[in-house]
UniProtKB/TrEMBL annotation:
Keywords: ATP-binding, Leucine-rich repeat, Nucleotide-binding, Plant defense, Repeat. Belongs to the disease resistance NB-LRR family. GO terms for biological process: defense response. It comes from Camellia sinensis var. sinensis. The keyword Nucleotide-binding applies. This is NB-ARC domain-containing protein. Gene3D superfamilies: Ribonuclease Inhibitor, Winged helix-like DNA-binding domain superfamily/Winged helix DNA-binding domain. Pfam families: LRR_14, WHD_DRP. Residues 87-152 form the Disease resistance protein winged helix domain. PROSITE patterns: LRR (PS51450). The keyword Nucleotide-binding applies. Residues 228-355 form the Disease resistance R13L4/SHOC-2-like LRR domain. One of its GO terms (molecular function) is ATP binding.
């Protein structure tokens, strides 16, 4: 008889996280290892190897479908989500929300009846966390154990690769035609030569750089984005965050399949108007883009947009017309109120899925308190932090009585946890 050991125990003997419902490994005293979950009852002879090495050798013995069905039951999406994680570098800390948005962009998560994609993705994440595929880090983020990452690479096969790994192994170049998802570690300066491998992976859907914690920015040759956009027409995920670029080529509008675009912490000054034709775009991340002054005029056409994060992009003075038509929005970090049509507070009325944090700035421009009521903040039960900001300048044109009424009409949902008020003249 063999000893029954679960995979979490085998992989992470030094960790306390133990899971119950996993593929069970049978190890006998002679070193034969078999899985009860495998249909053929395969056994391997692995003499003189450590338990951790045995675990990864076992994983290599089974194809990805068998592994997925053994671990995830009838779910066909969760194995894809797990395999995708093979492009995450070892020891890299990531947020749950970031990973879920990437899964969504790749089409691994479908909206279910009475469930938003974000909620389904969160369920997948928690399931993987409960089975110890992810571990909490010390910074309220998550990491993957090195061996679990190796396991993900086995499941992913040739569909995912980390660029630095392929550059070390020239024999793997022949499989790049099958590659769909890639990542790489950012370098201080990157030129087109760094990405020559891309020429052999024209079917890529994911272009995902990962940066080091202690570096605030990376230099990128100006011809790199143009070349990438010409070669990678099937991209769904494009991340150029932390690159010290000031502009994007207009050809970004040719990436018709793009669903996720991240330019956070870049020096981007202006986005090309062609971005307004990316009708499949779900996520646009512009965090801390300090030099960005305006957004494309036609952004109101992006009806699939679910997340628009401009946190820290303080130079943006006005949102494009038609934000109120983006009824799928879940994230809208800052809504800038003006007195002109299309920018009034009532534009928020139909955005019932807003969640997380929302800042309402320019509230001194609300001249009709009824517009504030039409914002329907009370219906937005997903908001947990709300900031209301009036101008710091208290000129004679402002009426404190109107501001009292406006504040009264902007009643948030009872689920709200934090309310911040700034520049308010009412008493």
């Amino acid at each position: 008889m063999g000893i029954m050991v679960n995979l979490c125990t085998l992989n992470m003997l030094e960790d306390d996280c133990i899971m119950d419902s996993v593929m069970v490994i049978c190890v006998d005293t002679e070193g034969h290892i078999a899985s009860e979950a495998s249909s053929g009852g395969i056994a391997l002879k692995l003499p003189g190897t450590s338990p951790k090495l045995k675990a990864i050798e076992i994983a290599a013995a089974y194809n990805s479908l068998s592994f997925g069905m053994g671990y995830f039951g009838s779910s066909m999406e969760q194995p894809k989500c797990f395999a995708y994680c093979s492009i995450i570098p070892n020891d890299y800390e990531f947020k749950e929300e970031e990973l879920v948005l990437l899964w969504m962009a790749e089409g691994f998560i479908q909206q279910q009846k009475e469930k938003q994609m974000e909620d389904v993705g969160a369920e997948y994440f928690r399931e993987l966390l409960s089975r110890c595929f992810f571990q909490p880090s010390r910074t309220s983020k998550f990491v993957m154990h090195d061996l679990i990452n190796d396991l993900a690479q086995v499941v992913a096969r040739d569909t995912c690769f980390r660029m630095e790994d392929r550059l070390k192994d020239q024999d793997q170049y022949k499989n790049l035609k099958k590659a769909r998802h890639s990542s790489y570690m950012q370098q201080y300066y990157e030129c087109i030569k760094n990405f020559e491998i891309i020429d052999k992976a024209k079917h890529l859907r994911t272009f995902l750089p990962f940066g080091l914690k202690y570096r605030s920015g990376y230099n990128l040759a100006s011809n790199v984005p143009l070349n990438l956009f010409q070669e990678l027409k099937r991209l769904r995920v494009l991340n150029m965050s932390r690159y010290l670029i000031t502009e994007l080529p207009n050809s970004v509008g040719d990436l018709k399949h793009l669903r996720y675009l991240n330019l956070s912490y870049s020096h981007i000054k202006e986005l090309p108007e062609s971005l307004g034709s990316l009708y499949n775009l779900q996520t646009l991340m512009l965090r801390e883009c300090k030099k960005l002054k305006k957004l494309p005029l036609d952004m109101g056409n992006l009806i699939d947009l679910r997340h628009l994060d401009t946190t820290g992009a303080d130079s943006v003075e006005e949102l494009p017309m038609g934000i109120g038509k983006l009824v799928s929005l879940h994230t809208l970090s800052n809504f800038i109120v003006t007195k002109t049509n299309g920018h009034r507070i009532k534009e928020l009325g139909n955005l019932i899925y807003l969640q997380g944090k929302l800042c309402l700035s320019g509230l001194q421009n609300v001249v009709n308190p009824l517009d504030a009521r039409k914002a329907n903040l009370n219906d937005k039960k997903g908001l947990y932090v709300l900031s209301m900001e009036w101008s710091a300048n208290s000129d004679d044109s402002r009426d404190g009585r109107v501001e009292i009424e406006v504040l009264d009409k902007l009643q948030p949902h009872k689920n709200l946890k934090e309310l911040h008020i700034k520049g308010y003249l009412g008493t």
